[in-house]
Amino acid sequence: MIESALRERRGGERRRAAGAGPKHHLVFVDRVLVTLAHLRHDLPHTALAVLFGVDRSTVSGAIRQIRPLLAARGFAVPDRPGVRLRTIEDVFAYAEAEGVELRIDGTDVQVRRPKAGRPGRKAFVSGKRKQNTIKTTTFSDGQRRTLFSGVARPGRMHDQTAVRTEGIAEQLRCRPGVGVHVDEGYRGLANQFPNQVTAPPRKPKTDAPISEHHAWRNRRHEQSSERICVEHANAEYKQWRSLQRCTGHREQFAETQAAIAGLVSDRSARRPTRRKTSKELVPIAAARPAAR
User: Fold this and answer.
1) Structural domain harbouring 239
2) Which of 51, 75, 99, 161 could form a disulfide with 265 if both were Cys (CB 3.0 to 4.6 A apart)?
3) Are the C-beta atoms of 168 and 104 separated by less than 8 Å?
4) Are residues 47 and 127 in the same domain?
5) pLDDT tens-digit map of 118-160
6) Domain identity same for 27 and 140
7) Is residue 32 part of a domain?
8) Contact 111, 250 (CB under 8 A)
9) Secondary structure of residue 273 in the 3-state scheme
10) Where are the beta strands (DSSP E) in 10-161?
11) Nearest to 184 by CA among 204, 196, 200
12) Alpha helices per DSSP H over 82-209
């Protein structure tokens, strides 16, 4: 009531004089540098405070302020400086408009276990040395350039389950002109959209002719060569210490991953387009299995 009466008497919101407000011990550029150093090398806040000559709480506040800004920037698009992709819908719309064939793959990052008594503390990923991980999905083009990376989920969730929850199948249904290369984990998606999704060919039976086995190896190699671009894109994220093993709070992982992936996309978008040789120009229809 008091604030309302004061606002009516002033005739509007309170106006601050020039220079009023909180005094930051770090200017905006230094706050960005502190955040980048923390994301790149995973340096403790105390060490960064010593380097910049401020208190540890100042560094923590700067990272909490800058990290969400970096995460909200989206992902850069090659040859489109003013365009940013922020959702899966944006990625499929861009791929349809530009005729880009997408590569999709998931990547795991080890994270800290939940506290005792919290859900998921005993949920480990099989084959990962009993690690507690979080998985994200990456979309790239044929030049190892990141178009989108995010949608964090528990590492124990299968890729095919993520297809249904993330809306990838719905986007393929709405945009039939978009082609996608995937690995064996997305076999169900390839069965559902045989004319759009290319998965590794099925291995022939043991008693099949030797020529059929040779043809299977050649098709598998061709499909792997087309899909390996997204593996290279995932490898670029792992160069950042924060995504090699996340030692911070699990609740901050999605924001950290989006911030780093957006920065990596800025660099990859400036990468010149590599022209394929005649041996690499394999028709996409030849690599896809025939619809049954």
Assistant:
1) 82-287
2) 75
3) yes
4) no
5) 776 666 665 555 678 888 899 999 888 999 998 888 777 777 7
6) no
7) yes
8) yes
9) coil
10) 75-77, 80-85, 102-110, 133-140, 146-154
11) 200
12) 88-98, 159-166, 168-174, 187-192
